[in-house]
Amino acid sequence: MPRSRNCRTTGSRVRRYRGGMRALRVLALAVTVGALGVAAVSCADSGSPARSTAPTPVAPEGFDTAAVTIRRADGSLCELCTYVARNEAERSRGLMFATDLAGYDGMLFAFGLASPQSFWMRNTGLPLSAAWFAADGLLVSALDMDPCPAGEQSCPLYGPQEPVLHVLEVLRGDLERFGITAGARLETVGAPCRPNPDGIGLQTTGTAA
């Protein structure tokens, strides 16, 4: 309550009044701070789970799968479980917009006739490596491919001039991990498969297409 300019008070009575008002103000401030503290604790302890800001992984959808056998240059075999893009629509889409391979080793692009095949990385956020195989299965070329920046109108093209029948895309660095280097050969494209839950090899789920 504001003090009136015309109010005249004297002596100890004034001091008691001021002291009492000061005490009331301190008490009111303490109550207010306490209430705010209770409100803050109540919000913090409301039991509402924290919302995750991590994006949901996006895996390729609508593709067949196949067990792919690679013979390394030293003669040893590597068995992979991949998605397969067999027709023009699937090959055009490829790994666009995918952020996760869901345990599969990559995507195999199968062409009906051997011909030069160039790839780009538009709308592809995963850094990839690709291997181009001739009609006899021999590795023709292997390249790392960088994602094309959003809005870029002229994404670079990757690929050799030689005709190829298959192209294998894997996560960046996995060609070396799988032993797909000079002298390697794609031996077979087999039955549908799914990744082994133990992370070793693959499990076939049918017969070869």
Structure description:
The chain is α+β, with helices and mostly antiparallel strands and 209 residues long. The chain folds into 2 domains: 10-45; 64-201, Protein of unknown function DUF192 (Jelly Rolls), CATH 2.60.120.1140. The protein contains 3 helices and 9 strands. The protein has helices spanning 11-44, 88-93, 174-178; strands at 64-71, 77-85, 107-115, 128-133, 139-145, 164-171, 185-189, 193-195, 202-204. Strands 5-4-6-3-2-1-7 form a 7-stranded mixed sheet. Strand 1 and strand 2 form a beta hairpin. The longest helix has 34 residues, at 11-44. It is globular and about 45 Å long. Mean pLDDT is 79; it is low at 1-46.
Secondary-structure map:
Layout: H1 11-44, E1 64-71, E2 77-85, H2 88-93, E3 107-115, E4 128-133, E5 139-145, E6 164-171, H3 174-178, E7 185-189, E8 193-195, E9 202-204
Parallel strand pairs: 2-3
Antiparallel strand pairs: 1-2, 1-7, 3-6, 4-5, 4-6, 8-9
Helix percent band: 10-25%
Work out the helix count. 3
Distance between the termini: 90 Å
- Under CATH, the topology of the largest domain can be stated as Jelly Rolls
Q: Ranges with pLDDT <50 over ≥5 residues?
A: 1-46
What strand order characterises the main sheet? 5-4-6-3-2-1-7
Tell me the number of strands. 9
Overall SS class: alpha+beta
Radius of gyration: 34 Å
CATH architecture of the largest domain: Sandwich
Q: Biggest sheet: strands, sense, closure?
A: 7 strands, mixed
